[in-house]
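Work Package 3 (structural annotation) set out to generate three-dimensional models for the target panel prioritized at the project kickoff. During this period the team completed the workflow that converts sequence records into discrete structure tokens, so that structures can be stored uniformly alongside our sequence database. As a representative example, we reproduce one entry of 204 residues exactly as it appears in the project archive.
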Amino acid sequence: MSWFISQANAQEPAIVPAEDGHAPVDAVGTTVAHEGGGHGGAFPPFDPSTFPSQLFWLAIVFIALYVLMAKKVIPQIAGILEARAAKIAGDLVEAEKAKADTDAAIASYEASLAAARNKANAIAHETRSKVAHEIDGRRHAAEAQLAAKLTDTEKHIEDVKRIALEHVSTIATETTEAVVEALVGKVSRDEAIAAVAAVSASKH
């Protein structure tokens, strides 16, 4: 607005006071009418005589602003928007990749955990089976060893009983011989054995 006012002031002719009481004249020698006899000038922006210059400068400013916006501002804004869009797209791609990697890692961890659990169950089952088989083997071996010892013991007892019975029979026969010989006289060994056998048979 100040520019238009200055332009209007520049276009108005400079008034030079007249000498010797004559009417004032402008810079080019034109006589200026007295204020009482003339009319006041219009506001410069609304003065129809200044419309062409105003439209001219408006067109120049508009074109300059348009060229500035088209050549510098809009490309910069477009570049910024494209850069931001590219960065957002890259971030989304990286996020999707990270999500895929995370899902793959979780799946691998779960698979490894399931495999380890299955392996542990298999090892535990194998260990239980092995321990049970070993315990059964040791039990059977102990039972067999105990049965063998029991058989040997029974055999030994039978041998001891047989030997003891033989000694008892011998002692009984000798004792019978001595008693009979002291009572009735000397007897033969066969008679003494027969007498002991008869006594033993009568007891059974």
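The mean pLDDT is 76.
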